[in-house]
Design a protein that fits this description.
mainly alpha, two-stranded antiparallel sheet, two-stranded antiparallel ribbon
């Protein structure tokens, strides 16, 4: 009669040499699952970053840190329409970017190099700008009131590209600066700027008059109150 098998005999213990093998398999599966989860986590992070960027308020501009360099700042038409007036007024308060350098970058041939002259700012103080990035000049007024890309030939030289053909500056009637002053688009934005400043002055004057009227009214009310108190005390 054979030996009776117990229930434990049907569940044989695995050999000791098989246990490391199973452990290695487990580690491999763990590493594989970890390596597969890393790209997924990276994709999730990117999606979250994109979501946060889209959720950030696009209707806010840091007016205290607007770019001054004409070659680096955003074009006015790139700002949301509802923010352009704030940006425009801030730039008008700051004025044109007129940097003073010991030596401006030379253009032209080596025999006849030409440079931007700081004294030109004194001649054209209200609109002439210079960028140390592109070593070119720009029109501040045209930038501030340029709400759309210009289709006029050569106009973007003073708003987007920058002007640096210094040979054409001191050229009498053909002076590039004088030609820009005479172009219709520049004259239009100058008129618009003057109207805007006059409007601001007008509003300020109205506010001052309203404040004066309110002060007078307050004084009359105070005087009436004092007279009433005096009358009641007798």
């Amino acid at each position: 009669m054979g030996t009776m098998k117990t229930i434990d005999s049907f569940f044989k213990r695995k050999n000791d040499d098989e246990e490391p093998h199973n452990e290695n398999q487990h580690n491999k599966r763990h590493k594989a699952s970890t390596s597969e989860s890393q790209p997924q986590e990276h994709e999730n992070k990117q999606e979250n970053d994109i979501f946060e960027a889209t959720q950030s308020n696009p209707n806010k501009v840091d007016l205290k840190n607007l770019e001054r360099d004409p070659a680096k700042r955003k074009q006015m038409w790139e700002y949301p329409i509802n923010l352009r007036e704030q940006v425009r007024r801030t730039y008008m308060t700051l004025g044109p970017f007129q940097i003073h350098l010991q030596e401006y970058n030379a253009k032209g041939s080596k025999k006849h190099p030409r440079r931007f002259q700081y004294s030109w700012f004194n001649i054209l103080p209200n609109w002439l700008e210079y960028s140390p990035t592109t070593h070119a000049s720009y029109c501040f007024i045209c930038y501030v009131f340029n709400d759309k890309p210009s289709v006029c030939h050569g106009y973007d030289a003073f708003t987007v590209k920058g002007f640096y053909n210094w040979k054409k500056v001191n050229d009498g009637k053909n002076c590039a600066f004088l030609k820009h002053l005479g172009c219709s688009q520049h004259r239009n934005v100058v008129t618009f700027a003057e109207n805007l400043m006059n409007q601001a002055t007008h509003v300020e004057n109205i506010t001052m008059k309203q404040n004066e009227a309110q002060m007078l009214k307050n004084r009359l009310q105070l005087k009436a109150s004092i007279d009433t108190v005096r009358w009641l005390t007798f």
